[in-house]
Amino acid sequence: MDKKQLVIIGAGPGGYAAAFLASDLGLKVTLIDNEKYPGGVCLYRGCIPSKALLHVAKVISESEEAKNFGVEFSKPKIDLKKMRSWKDEVVSKLTSGLGQISKFRKIEYIKGGAKFINSDTLEILKDDKSTENINFENAIIATGSHPVRIPSLTIDSSRVLDSTSALNIEDIPKSMLVIGGGYIGLELGTVYATLGTKVTVAEMLPGILNGADDDLVAVLQKRVKSLFESVLVETKVISLEESKSGIKVIFEDNKSQRTEKLFDKVLISIGRKPNSKNLGLENTKVEIDEKGFIKVDNQLRTTDKNIFAIGDVAGEPMLAHKASHEGRAAAEVIAGHKSAFEPKAIPAVVFTDPEIAWCGLTENEAKEKNIEISVAKFPWAASGRSLTLGRTDGLTKLIIDPKSERILGMGIVGPGAGDLIAEGVLAIEMGANATDIKLSIHPHPTLSETIMESAEVFFGQSTHMYKPKK
Ligand code: FAD
Question: What share of the chain is helix, strand, coil (3-state, %, to 5)?
């Protein structure tokens, strides 16, 4: 049997990015996925459909807020069928486009499920149930992740949703409980709440968005107070039971007090697990850790030397851009380059309203690791641009090494934070210091100036905020 030079299992943002670069670098690539076209969770059931719906939510809430500027719209009429088909169209344009690009690059695309038979053979199960074995020189595992399910909360009911079914927006329920205060639950909760659902969020931990700094989360929390019915923290969901009129939910708070409430729908969004089972890894030397992530080194190589792993299946953070960059690094290593995946900053964005974004070192992390830092904050209330947008509820901050004055981290909350954070990533990767940011001319009037003014705050010289250096 001919050996394929590079086989990639899974065509999400990790797998297709790896495949495309590997092909550009001259490798013969075979890409395998269960879907007709590349895209993975991100394009079919994740990043893209959720952001399409969040855009709808943004249009609705901005049109409501326009009354503050003297423009009043009547209540919007929601055509769910049209909204769904618009979202699906976005997905199909992108995925079929990736299919085209894959063809242009002469990548062999196989639709099917792959399983390792040994360290250099895969069995492909096709849709018609036929199987084909293929041998390979190198393989990249890019099989992604799936939503976590807890047996005690698993009931067979169309009223209980996961992120995939929630994205279908079958209806606008009167009430919804979102279990889990992570970014996926909050983003989808935002969509439903803006469409008119009374959304309650229940989170087991003391706060929502574990990992993000408290001052950034506080700004979001203030706004979601009016958007969501309530946000319950330190609250565990004990059980779900279907009744005629909804799902009966039993909560337990941190004092072991139990309460009961009925919801039309429940969205379970309590995290994701790597897809490392049922891959036949036991037939190879690939090892997984206690959480199910495939163990890799800084070249994305597993404990089986010709097999690599990237993306969600290879560890946190489970984000599309991290998957793509790992994919590109693995492709370079396989093509013989001396490459490694060693980023200084992987940005995280929560696409709520306001958005929260951060990269590099956070204040929480600095505290935990006892790293000495200076924090320079610029509140958006002092930004001309944020006033013109009617959105002064933002904050930009820089985490700076007090000795070298290097930028170690950046955090932003406010509309468009997700786009602004890229400057922080570049600053950290380039080893920029506060002076570099202060002296870089940022266009006026833009929200990007809040980054420059944060650097000015560090020196006690902010133009729009009087805060002398102590
Ligand atoms: P995936 O995208 O999961 O792709 C894996 C592919 O492998 C799938 O197509 C799967 O069918 C295929 N596969 C699995 N097993 C096999 C097999 N045995 N044989 C063949 N094929 C197989 N991330 C962001 O960065 N930004 C966001 O805004 C964002 N929003 C999200 C919103 C939601 C609702 C969800 C659920 C996720 C979101 N994510 C977001 C996370 C993002 O989707 C993932 O981090 C990303 O898709 C991981 O890419 P991947 O290539 O590792 O795997």
Answer: 35, 25, 40
